């Protein structure tokens, strides 16, 4: 287990290199995001994702979302990108909005019991973006064990996971502890599964259409 202070230019470069190496070898890393700290791994390694779920004491019934480092990355991950998805990506990415779409059937991944879908987000944090652009899509979820509060600092993540995680990238205290808003675009109409940092009203305004909310 190694913690890198990403506020220091040298440590940031070394930390990103170490984190990229860890992800490529199927190990877990903790990264700062624009919401809370995230714990993540290679999205295409079923073994790594299983290790991620085990570290969180979480089962496959609560699947893991995927973070990407650019808008265009989603084209290779989903069956198709509807106009509604493009609109939300352009309006809110990078940022606190996650979208759910049917994933491309050719992809060899196992993120849990997803029902053939994937939840995607591009985070607004330079350290996370740099790592994602180096290693590609990562399976990432909040850095906390199931039932515990999400980590707002790298140290809080260390206290929960210790040596279960290889590399911790310390980007300072996280921003607002409000989760991302989740919009399901798999049906005929957009459905907000969770209202978080982006309001339902903002989603509605961006799309110019009515938006349903989960009850």
Automatic annotation (TrEMBL):
Molecular-function GO term, any one: tRNA binding
Subcellular location: Cytoplasm
InterPro entries (UniProt xref): DHBP_synth_RibB-like_a/b_dom, Sua5-like_dom, TC-AMP_synthase_SUA5
EC number: 2.7.7.87
Keyword Cytoplasm attached: yes
Coiled coil location: none
Keyword Signal in record: no
One GO process term, biological-process aspect: regulation of translational fidelity
Annotated keywords: ATP-binding, Cytoplasm, Nucleotide-binding, Nucleotidyltransferase, Transferase, tRNA processing
GO cellular component, one term: cytoplasm
Catalyses which reaction(s): L-threonine + hydrogencarbonate + ATP = L-threonylcarbamoyladenylate + diphosphate + H2O
Main location: cytoplasm
Similarity section: Belongs to the SUA5 family.
Protein name: L-threonylcarbamoyladenylate synthase
Organism per entry: Actinokineospora terrae
Organism phylogeny: Bacteria, Bacillati, Actinomycetota, Actinomycetes, Pseudonocardiales
